[in-house]
Amino acid sequence: MTDIIEKPRRSDTSNNSYATRPNNVSALGVVDFGDCEQCSQYPNRWSSIREHISAPAAEFMGAFILCLLGCGGNCQANLSANKNVSASPAGNVVTSNLSWALGLSLGVWLSANYSGGHVNPAVTIAFATVRGFPWKKVPIYLLAQLLGALCGAGVVYATYFHAINIVEGGSDIRTISVTGNLFGTYAADYLTSVSAFFAEFIGSAMLITGIFMFTDKKNGPAPPGVVPVGIFFVVLGISSALGMDTGAALNPARDLGPRILTAMVGYGSAVFNFRNQYWLWCPVLGPIFGMLVAAFFYDAMLYRGSESITNKPSEAAERHHMHSCARRNKLHGDADAV
User: Contact, 183 vs 164, CB < 8 A?
Assistant: First the structure.
């Protein structure tokens, strides 16, 4: 660094203009470290710390936005339907579906550059299983996504606390059927357990297919910024067509985070005891298995990228490749000699 930024000379100190002393140490604030490949990539201590926490922080923020807008859309649409809360409804099932789609789209948009924009434990597990995403990063991603969803739902609950009291009939009354289902997802009464699992399985399979489709270079590739918009339409389509049965969780963190929040604020253990631990086998395991199956199918049938385990070369293919490269190099060497 001493050959780039010189110490100030005595004659320099008499002039207070930065423009007339470009090498002055006091002008360090305008140095662009990107101009020098040999300079430190971390201009200060915080930038070094941020390098290690930006990915989980991005996942936290993405999941936070998802549940902030999604749960907020649910609350506004349903609570405003009560005449004691609002003279006229301020939303419906369409605005609720739009809120979830927009929440995921913005969450992915925010986090894509820093973490890959998973915002979903099932997506993270699918990428780790099929596309080579490092397994050592999976636990911190899952934790960040869960905490982000929990905090996002917490902000929504605090925002609509008084409206929830009015609809429930008091601050000491909390029931799943009235307001608890605005945060977590619960299967319709007519639905069997197998059908509930299947609904989440199919919806989640469609979501990961959409993600793979938009990020597949053979399909475009999509211009920068278009992937979150495409995901918006995929989620909107799934929730509009397949959301009636189970609420279309499609995301273990999106359901478990708000569900934990409701257990903490007065809804009690009923949120976990519903239908013999429904929370585990439907909105958690359903999306994970659905995305794994769809990811394997997409890569086995369509995808050509080298990062997929379905395209990992066999030993025979590697030997053939090495032999072909050696032969080609030999031919080029002979041609150069001539």
Answer: no
